[in-house]
């Protein structure tokens, strides 16, 4: 925090939330948790987005044309997870394994 906000610290204008955030991010041992939470958020967000996108947009168009489309969970299990689980493993091996 001193490295990036020294002038704010000297003025006393640092807020409690900033100090708490610096405490969580500062120790290198805790950085792996931040990385894991960030990676999980991004990839599980992608999982739900990939599952929801076809359900909300394409499903109504396909349904009106008489084409059967999978439900959200069916789409996730059949199409999203088989693609994203190997991606999770690669991300873990490249970015998180060494921590």
Overview of this structure, please?
The chain is an all-alpha fold and 99 residues long. The protein has a domain at 28-96. Helix content is 83%, strand content 0%. It is elongated, with a radius of gyration of 21 Å. The two termini are 22 Å apart.
**Major beta sheet summary:** none
Unreliable spans are none
Which percent bin holds the helix content? over 70%
Radius of gyration: 21 Å
Order of helices and strands: HHHH
Beta-strand content estimate: under 5%
Classification by helices and strands: mainly alpha
Number of helices: 4
Give the integer mean of the pLDDT values: 78
Total strands: the figure is 0
Beginning-to-end CA distance, first to last residue: 22 Å
Which shape, going by the Cα principal axes? Answer: elongated
Give a quick rundown of the structure.
The chain contains 4 helices and no strands. It is 83% helix and 0% strand.
Topology of this protein?
Blueprint: H1 2-11, H2 16-25, H3 28-64, H4 72-96
Task: Name the descriptors.
single chain, 99 residues, 4 helices, elongated
